Amino acid sequence: MIDLRSDTVTTPTEGMLQAMMSAKVGDDVFGEDPTVNRFEKKMANLFGMEAGLFVPSGTMSNQLCLNVLTSTGDEVIIDELGHVFNYETGAAAHLSSVQLRPLNGKNGKLSRELIEPAIRPKNDWDPHTRVIALENTTNKGGGDFYSIEELIEISNLADEHGLFVHLDGARIWNAMAASGIEPEFFGSIADTISICFSKGLGAPVGSMMLASGEMIKKARRMRKMLGGGMRQVGLLAAAAEYGVEHHWPLLESDHQNAKRFSEAVSRNSEFTIDKTSVHTNIVLFDVVNASVKQVLDTFESKGIRMVQFGAKTIRATFHFQITDENVEELTSITESITFD
Ligand SMILES: *Cc1c(COP(=O)(O)O)cnc(C)c1O
Fold first, then answer.
1. 164-169 vs 192-196, strand pairing mode
2. Ligand 1 proximity of 88 Cβ (cutoff 6 Å)
3. Percentage with pLDDT > 70 across the chain
4. Residue (of 8, 51, 2) closest to 205 by Cα position
5. Which atom of ligand 1 has the smallest separation from the CA of 57?
6. Is 59 close to ligand 1, i.e. is its CB under 6 Å away?
7. Is residue 207 within 6 Å of ligand 1 at its C-beta?
8. Does residue 140 line the site of ligand 1, with CB under 6 A?
9. What is the pLDDT of residues 136-169, one digit of tens each?
10. Alpha-carbon Rg for the chain in angstroms
């Protein structure tokens, strides 16, 4: 099966399992797991942040970040394609009593021009604009990433207005592979960062919140409240660390495979695609005459899985367990497939 439904479908490699089995562990609720403690410090240092908190999912990580940045009645500016807005069960309203202000950006990306007019005046009756929430790379936005200049503009705007910047970096690894931006730069423009190890890096479980020491202290308590305090979780941190060391360098090849696939899509008149929209490991394309279901079913019958991502849109996501042979097979099927 060539499974392109997501980059979350990878399974642990032999090397990753070895790393897990040899990890030194302790009770992390007591703060005594040496692997977790070391890994949290290592990631914080990598991104130039004070501290880290290992958590089960990117959703928990994003929600902890918003929780420590906001108070009741605050507003969070976000792109309308953002994961926090679309795929987190409306959690910010429930857990942090804040409202989200979705803006119509480009490929899931916000800009200074778009954000500035949305910042509210400080009247008694206005929600307090508190956070600018960015996503990099963008998921629903098709894997696009920010340039250094775009991020500096947004960060300057946040400073001018006393706003926090949150960065949902579930696929920050892909953003770094594609843009060449160094990790510590992101620490310099964001107050909180969420990074995931279970997407392109291939860990079975695990994300991390990065922030100031004070914020992490507060988030640690909230994590416990959400049932996210885990015991000998160094087993999972070891898998995540293995992913950072061994699978991060493989992402560029995922990006090349995504490009190759998009070429094949463009050669079949059953589909339309904007090839310039392929920035990293995510490919979005539209069906022309057939229904999305028909297309997905036909691909499935040939051993290829993708997902629906809109009324006429399909998403294919590349990851390191898609081999060169898989890409050969995939592109030749994609070029010639028909639907009747
Ligand atoms: C996957 C993802 C998350 C977190 O997802 P979990 O399934 O909760 O780990 C957050 N943001 C983006 C952009 C994502 O793609």
1. parallel
2. no
3. 100
4. 8
5. 9
6. yes
7. yes
8. no
9. 999 999 999 999 999 999 999 999 999 999 999 9
10. 20
Confirm if 129 and 70 have CB atoms less than 8 A apart: no
- For ligand 1, the distance from its centroid to the CA atom of residue 108, given in whole angstroms, is 14
Ligand 1 mean position to 200 CA, how many Å? 11
Token output for 221 = 């308590």
Minimal-distance CA residue to ligand 1 atom 6 = 58
Phi and psi at 58, nearest 5°, equal -65, -35
**Is any ligand 1 atom within 6 A of the Cβ of residue 196?**
yes
- Whole-angstrom distance, CA of residue 102 vs CA of residue 100: 6
Instruction: Copy the structure tokens of residue 261.
Output: 């696939």
| Cross-strand bridge partners of residue 245 | none
Q: For the whole model, what pTM was predicted?
A: 0.97
DSSP string, 109-142: B--HHHHGGGSPP--TTS-EEEEEEEESS-TTTT
Task: Look up residue 176 and give its two tokens.
Answer: 């770094």
What is the tens place of the pLDDT at every residue in 14-37? 999 999 999 999 999 999 999 999
**Residue 334 CB–ligand 1 contact under 6 Å:** no
Q: How far apart are CA 204 and CA 8, in angstroms?
A: 8
CA distance linking residue 64 with residue 58, whole number of Å:
10
Please give the Cα distance from 111 to 156 (Å, whole number). Answer: 11
pLDDT of residue 265: 98
Domains along the chain? 14-243 (3.40.640.10), 250-336 (3.90.1150.10)
Is the CB of 76 inside a 6 Å radius of any atom of ligand 1? no
| Average pLDDT, 10 consecutive residues per value, the chain (340 residues) | 97 98 98 98 98 98 98 98 98 98 98 98 96 98 98 98 98 98 98 98 98 98 98 98 98 98 98 96 97 97 97 97 98 94
Q: What is the structure's pLDDT at 340?
A: 80
pLDDT tens profile 211-249:
999 999 999 999 999 999 999 999 999 999 999 999 999
Phi-psi region of 339 (alpha: psi -120 to 50; beta: other; left: phi over 0): beta
